[in-house]
């Protein structure tokens, strides 16, 4: 269906829609990137502590 819709729009309308989608999702993508960096930093700290890995494996399995 998406292909059929794309065929019904002139090429420049598709470019405008793509630009609009990119602009509308920018804030979300930035937040996602920040959250990923925070989680990675937290894991580096957490897993460096003695016994944490074993405790996680004990509670949640390998």
What's the N-to-C terminus distance?
A: 43 Å
For the residues shown, what is the average pLDDT? 84
Proportion of strand residues: under 5%
- Level of helix content? over 70%
Radius of gyration: 22 Å
Tell me about this structure.
There is one protein chain. By secondary structure, the protein is mainly alpha-helical. The chain has one domain. 87% of the residues lie in helices and 0% in strands. It has three helices and no strands. The longest helix is centred in the middle third of the chain and has 38 residues. The chain is elongated and about 60 Å long. The model has no long low-confidence stretch (mean pLDDT 84).
Map the helices and strands.
Elements: H1 2-8, H2 11-48, H3 52-60
Protein name: Enoyl-CoA hydratase/carnithine racemase
In short:
This protein has 62 residues and is an all-alpha fold.
Record keyword descriptors for this entry.
62 residues; single chain; 0% strand; mainly alpha; Enoyl-CoA hydratase/carnithine racemase
